[in-house]
């Protein structure tokens, strides 16, 4: 499969490294409005066909898919452009700025009969995936309580300066992943209540969020996120998980330590992610999941299946983000299904 990547910034470098390792798929053309980033990325990955304009690229190239690695304001026009060209699409998170945009993007690609996957990669991290598979396999019985937690003081602003500038920060940027992990464990959400705070005075948006979720299947979960947590050693970018089930408990603790206690037995496993040749700590956890999710996209197209993290699926994660902001602003519990 021949693909083109749009947006040659901070995170796209990981996507390009991962594409180079995926059999049967490759990136043949690059696009960025920023000439310097485009040239540097083209040189680093040896990709000769480069464009400053996405429409011109899609007209000129013969492609199967596009990988959109720009920030959110450009997502809707780029996804709709790709749909018009009848291409399969991967789009980075946050998928869209509004639910209306997101629904239109899903409709555009589905209307073209192509596959749309959101690059919602945290549930594809191998440690998280192992925990998801363990719970789905019934190892602790039926879950009734969960906590998915991401607390760090890591400086994300030096690599991604735009994160300090937006009115919204942690829920939209990072909480979106943690909410998605909660959905992967416990299913759809009926009600959500949230509080937010800004601790770091140098940024504009909230850097702490605490969310209480009532899942349709009966689980109550807490999703808590912070970029204001001064902790040594810092756990960035680990998502920590606690689940109580009818037959036992699962804990994914700091240091990628997975503990399962059930039916009188205990297992403690080191589920540290592999360090891929191009990866660097502590990002290796996220970097590995990039390769996994891109492989999933290729596999799904080959098999004619909808990706687990499809555009349609992501509407439900995006609704949790919107519900959290609305709840924090109004003090009310919000039904994501109403949004
Ligand atoms: P960035 O600003 O470093 O890079 C974005 C690039 O897109 C820039 O080079 C910009 O010039 C280019 N661009 C913007 N609009 C364009 C357009 N219309 N056509 C062509 N090029 C265009 O941003 P980043 O930090 O790489 O983040 C990109 C996206 O990746 C964001 O949505 C972010 O949330 C997401 N992200 C995801 C993860 C993850 O783990 N999934 C991690 C980090 C960032
Ligand atoms: O942008 C964010 C993401 O998606 O994962 C971590 C991050 O890079 C900073 O919060």
UniProtKB/TrEMBL annotation:
InterPro entries: Gfo/Idh/MocA-like_OxRdtase_N, Gfo/Idh/MocA_oxidoreduct, GFO_IDH_MocA-like_dom, NAD(P)-bd_dom_sf. It comes from the Bacteria. Residues 3-118 form the Gfo/Idh/MocA-like oxidoreductase N-terminal domain. Residues 129-251 form the GFO/IDH/MocA-like oxidoreductase domain. This is Gfo/Idh/MocA family oxidoreductase. It comes from Jiella sonneratiae.
């Amino acid at each position: 499969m021949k693909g083109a990547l749009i947006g040659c910034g901070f995170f796209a470098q990981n996507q390009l490294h991962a594409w180079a390792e995926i059999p049967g798929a490759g990136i043949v053309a690059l696009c960025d409005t920023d000439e310097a980033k485009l040239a540097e990325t083209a040189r680093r990955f040896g990709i000769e066909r480069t464009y400053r304009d996405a429409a011109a690229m899609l007209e000129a190239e013969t492609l199967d898919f596009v990988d959109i690695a720009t920030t959110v304001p450009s997502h809707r026009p780029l996804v709709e452009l790709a749909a018009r060209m009848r291409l399969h699409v991967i789009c980075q998170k946050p998928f869209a700025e509004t639910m209306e945009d997101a629904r239109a993007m899903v409709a555009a690609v589905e209307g073209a009969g192509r596959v749309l996957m959101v690059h919602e990669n945290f549930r594809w991290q191998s440690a998280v995936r192992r925990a998801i598979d363990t719970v789905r396999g019934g190892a602790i019985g039926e879950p009734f309580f969960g906590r998915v937690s991401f607390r760090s003081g890591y400086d994300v602003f030096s690599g991604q300066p735009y994160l300090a500038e937006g009115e919204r920060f942690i829920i939209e940027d990072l909480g979106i992943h943690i909410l998605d992990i909660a959905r992967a464990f416990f299913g759809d959400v009926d009600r959500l209540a949230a509080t937010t705070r800004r601790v770091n005075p140098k940024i504009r948006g909230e850097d702490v969020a605490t969310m209480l979720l009532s899942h349709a299947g009966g689980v109550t979960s807490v999703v808590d996120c912070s970029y204001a947590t001064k902790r040594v050693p810092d756990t960035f970018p680990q998502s920590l998980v606690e689940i109580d089930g009818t037959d036992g408990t699962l804990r994914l603790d700091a240091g990628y330590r997975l503990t399962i206690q059930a039916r009188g037995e205990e297992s403690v496993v080191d589920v540290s992610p592999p360090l891929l040749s191009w990866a660097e700590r502590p990002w290796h956890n996220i970097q590995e999941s990039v390769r996994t999710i891109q492989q999933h996209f290729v596999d799904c197209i080959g098999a004619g299946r909808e990706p687990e993290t499809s555009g349609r699926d992501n509407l439900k994660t995006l609704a949790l983000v919107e519900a959290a902001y609305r709840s924090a602003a109004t003090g009310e519990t919000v039904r994501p299904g109403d949004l």
